[in-house]
Structures are given as C-alpha cells and as structure tokens.
Amino acid sequence: MTLASGRGVRRVSVFQVQTMHSYFKLSPLACACALCSAMAQTTPGEIIITGNPLGREQTSVPASALGRSDLIERGQSTLGETLSGLPGVSSTYFGPNASRPIIRGLDGDRIRVLNNSASSVDVSALSFDHAVPLDVLSTERIEVLRGPAALQYGGSAVGGVVNVIDNRIPREPLSGLSGKAQLQGATGNRERSAAALLESGNARWAWHVDGFDRHTGDVRVPLSVACDKTGETRYAARICNSASQSRGGAVGASTFWDHGYLGASVNTHQSDYGTVAEDQVTIGMKTTRYALEVQQRQLPGWFESVKGRLGHTDYRHTEFDNGAPGTVFANQGQDLRIEARHRALLGWQGVLGAQVESGRFSAVGDEAFAPFSQTRSQALFVHEVLPTAWGQFNAGARWESVRVASLGNPSLDRFEVGTRAFAPWSLAAGTLVQIAPAWRLTGNAAMTQRAPKDYELFANGPHLATHAWEVGNSQLGLEKSRSLDAGLAWQSGPHRMGITAFASDFDNFIALLATGQTQDSLPVQTYQGVKARFRGLEAGGRQRLWQAASTLDLDWRADIVRARNDSTGEPLPRIAPLRLGATLAYAQGPWHAKFGADWHAAQHRVPAGSVATVAYTLANASVSYRQKLPGLTLDWFARIDNLTNQLAYSPTSILTSTAFGKSPLPGRSFKLGVQAGF
Fold it and tell me: What angle do CA 65, 66, 68 make, to 5 degrees?
C-alpha cells in the first residue's frame, strides 16, 4: 500500500494502516470493504490513496489500482480490456474499440466510470458498441472500487466504481518544469501511438498541458474472418472493421494559497472507430469536458475542510453507414459535488456531502431506440468511521432524488412521453478486525437502491448492437439489492495472500429479456424486473521464491462468479467463468521481466439464446529496462500478448451470441515502446 502526500508517495505495509489509525482515518464505506479489496489486490506493488472522501491525507479506500508503470505494460486501447484480468473484473469486449469493465458480474449503469472522481458523461452504458471517451495514454492511474465502498459515488454504483485519474487540474504546487513523452507500436493491430505532457509552476501557480494520438488497424486473430466492408466478401486473419483513430488533449491550471487551491481544466477526446458487428458501420465520437475544482483546509468551527468539484460535458457521436451519416447520439451533462470533513465528534471521523447531476440525452435517426430525455438527481451522503482498540467500525448512508423524463422524438412517434420520480437510498456498515499482527478479518453489509435509467423506462426501437428490438417499461420500480462480503488477508514481508467471498441478492433486478416476438425481423426484448442472485470468490497473493541480488516472485490470482435469474431459474448472461492465473516476476536493478498465463474455464452456464464458450489459456511475457541519463529517464518496454496465438471467444461479450465468429479475442501481438521523463 502507498500513502500519498502531495505528489510524492510512501510505501507502507497494508497491515500497518491499523496501527496508524490515530493519524489516518478511513472512510466508513471504504473500511466496510477493506478486506475485500485488500485480498483482491493482485497488482504487484502499491495502492494509491485517493479513493475516499476524507481527502489526500488519509488512508486509501482499499482497491485494486494500476499505476503508470502498470498502464505502460498492460494498457490497451479500451478501459475494459486494460482492467480485465484483475480479480473480479472482466470486460464487455465489443471488439477492440468499445469495452466497459464488468465487476463481480455486473455491468452497464451498475458500474460507474469516473474521471478524477467526477462522472464521465457519455453513452457507453447505453450500448455495448459505444466507447468510453477515456484513453490510458493520458492517464496517471486507475482505481477499481468494489462493493459498498462505491456507494459514496452514487447509489447506481451497486457493482463498483472505476476512477480514471490524471493531473489535469494540479492539486499541489509544482516546482520547475517537468514532462513525459511516450511512443509505442504493436504488431497485432498495427498500432502507432504517441503521448506527451508538460507541467510547471511554483508555490502559487501551476499549469498542465497534455496530448495523445493513437492509430490502429484491423486486429489480427488466429483464423480467417469474412469481411464485406468493400462491398464484396473477402477473408483475412483480422477482425473486419476494427481499425480506429483516437486523439485528444487538455490544458489546466491552478492557483494556490496557504490552505487551499482553485483549479480549472478543459479536455477533449475524439475517436473514429469501426463497430465490428457491422462491416460498414463506423462511429465518429467527440467529447469536451470543462472542470472546476476548489478546496479549503484548516477551517474554523465544525468542519476541518471543504472541497467542491463542478463539471460540464458535451458528448456527441455519429454512426456512419458506408460513410453516410446515420443516427446521432448526444449527451450534455453537469455535475456538482461538495464534501465537508467534520472534526471528531465522540470519536467519529467522517464526511458530509451533497451531489447534483443533470443530463440531457438525444438520439436522432431511424435507428434511435431511446427517446430524447432529461435526467436530474440530487443526493446527500454521510460516511463515518469509529476507530477502536480492535479495529474499526464503519457506517454510511446515501439518499437520492431522481427524476427521469422522456421527451419523445420529433421525428419518431413510437416513444412514450412521461416522467418518473424516484427516491432511492442506500445504507452500509462494516467492521474491520486485526486478529493478529499479520492477519486481518473484515465483514460488511449494504442495502442499496438504484433508479431505472431512461432507456430502461422508455426505449422502443431497433438496437443493432444487441441485435434486438428493445422495449422499455415505464412502470419499473427501484432496483433493490442486499450485499454481504467477508474475507481474510495475511501478509508477512514480501509474502501476501487474501480471499474474499461475496453475495448479492436483488429484488427487481432490471434485465433485458426475450419475449418470443419479432418486429422488423428483430427479436423483441423488454426490460423487466426479476429476482437475481450473485455469488463469488476473489483471491490473490504473492510468494517470494528468491531474493539475493535479484528477486523472483510468483503472483497468483483466481476468481469465480455465479449469477442466476431466480424468477426463471436460468443463469444470467455474460458472466465470466472460473479464472485462474499466475505470473513469474523477475527483477534485477533496472531490469524487470514477467511471464504469465491465465486460464479461463468453459462457460456452459448460459441462458437460452446465448452461446456457450470453451476453455482457453492466454499467455503473455514482458520485459522492461529503466535507463537513466543526465536530466532524463527512459523506460523501455516490450510485451507479447497471447503468446501461443490461442483462438478464444469472450463469454462476457454480447458479440459471442449475436455475431459469433466475427470478433474473437485478439491473436498474438508484440508491443514495443519507450517513455521519456524529465
């Protein structure tokens, strides 16, 4: 684990945190799942502490994290594929260009994607072929919060939160000029990428500027795939229509005073990519975000500090059919979050907060399957922690008011017009017990409620990504869940291990289910509330095999999720099977090398209409070297993915059922790159 203060970090044992509780107080919901995340953490090295509302000076929300070195090694062109393989995390994989994370079997709007703890306003949860407008080339680190700790960011985040963090608003004074530049290429998708950033400042001012550019071609796979993109059928060992171009950048600046700062930034992201399910359909996407952030510390009175964030996002993408513009999706949103940390009250430490979000969505075109809509939400939340002699007790609550309005569509008369209002609330509590110097036990429980989304209420149209005519249900009520997780973690020197068991039961789990009817040659699917249950295990650890002038470690990981529709008795779709993985990690001086493999079991637990997948193993190897020159550091890296060129299909991708054979997982690919820093 790592403690962060300013722009520096300090490594500490994850089990030293308890002994430092008088100095570092965890957020309540964070501590509620402390063991779960600590046990699930398999990224060798560190956890960065930012994912809790008590601020930078506090211990971390225990979570899996990928720092900059991890992102250099395993970063992919999509957020989902970059995180896939972390314990409990898989990917929706709609080809190589559109992929969202799945956490503990939950996807879509049950997973919140944040940028610097603020909502990422887009339409990626609306459809599997819509990309998340974030790129790892411009990212400093990514945190994954599982279970109840995610509730501080919204009641809809019942599965978890993915927080993509950058320094586009400097939060600490800078000294002098610093920068980074990265170049990389890959053979599997003919990638050519470049990224750079510059930062400078003094005790009162700081500024940041960055940019990136990524070009990829069609992705190589282990078998020949038919392609009709040119108007005639051709066969090649590449995924048809999977090329992409992405670019973007940002500028930001902050001013500092003795106990606070005020900063602002503007960033843009553009991407043009093929949708892979349809050979002649591409998407042109552009998003621009404006952000303002302020914090004041060392206040008099009841509150120690107050922090506020305000953001505005304009998102738009156009779907092109053989070059001709088709459906245009747009989403304009604002978000405001205020957090106030209070002084100790009867031993309790914590944060009170308020959050306001609003969004205006539109889809214009014959294939618009959701109406124009407005969504507004307000929330109040509290997170508290009580340190004890034996550990900690944590509690938290969140209340929301959500209003969803369908405005119809001026060009299409098939949509229902109306408004629904909801008042979801969520509670969480947990304990953390240090049962021995090297052993920690944690248990937590949560009750959550989620308001239906606009498309779940009012959709009515052809959705080619799911190959269905989707119909919403305006009478849907709140989605309610009850969750438990418990686990055990151990660490002794460089050795560590942990295991977590979790269970979630849903009332009115909102699922898209077949009706047996057809419309315009498409099967009709409707959003319905069903009873559902999720059960699973996550485990991981590290064993030091050798230590002298060099070190050799064995990292291992495992997870499994079982999810069932209790209303029908069938399994829920797109659930990852049992996964087992291990990596040998060697380090000597500036050299680091890894060799690993991940085995995915066959997935036969699928509902009617879904396709079962066979077992497969993906192997990879990497090597890196840090070269230090006067005033410059060069990090060279090379990696081979899918070393054996294994043919595999993702059990968590809808393409496996709706377009089987068109988009297998990528074949063997060699990546080479360098990052320079000064």
Answer: 140
H helices of 408-463, in order, are 454-458
Contact 507, 545 (CB under 8 A): no
Question: What residues does each domain of the chain span?
Answer: 2-677
CA distance 200 to 191: 31
Summarize the confidence of residues 31-57 as an average pLDDT.
38
We find that the CATH architecture of domain 2-677 is: Beta Barrel (2.40)
The two tokens of residue 652 are 């968590």
| pLDDT, tens digit (0-9, with 9 covering 90-100), for 606-637 | 998 899 999 999 999 999 999 999 999 999 99
Q: Is 0.70 surpassed by the pTM of this model?
A: yes
- What 3-state DSSP class applies to 200? strand
Residues 216, 217, 223, CA angle at the centre, nearest 5°? 130
The residue behind tokens 């502490």 is 49
Structure tokens at 455: 């498309």
Beta-carbon-side half-sphere exposure of residue 526 (alpha carbons within 13 Å):
12
Please give the angle made by the CA atoms of 422, 427 and 432, to the nearest 5 degrees.
160
d(CA 439, CA 209): 44
Q: Contact 586/551 with Cβ under 8 angstroms?
A: yes
Q: Measuring CA to CA, which residue among 428, 502, 514, 433 is closest to residue 470?
A: 514
User: CA 236, 611, 110, 162 torsion: positive or negative?
Assistant: negative
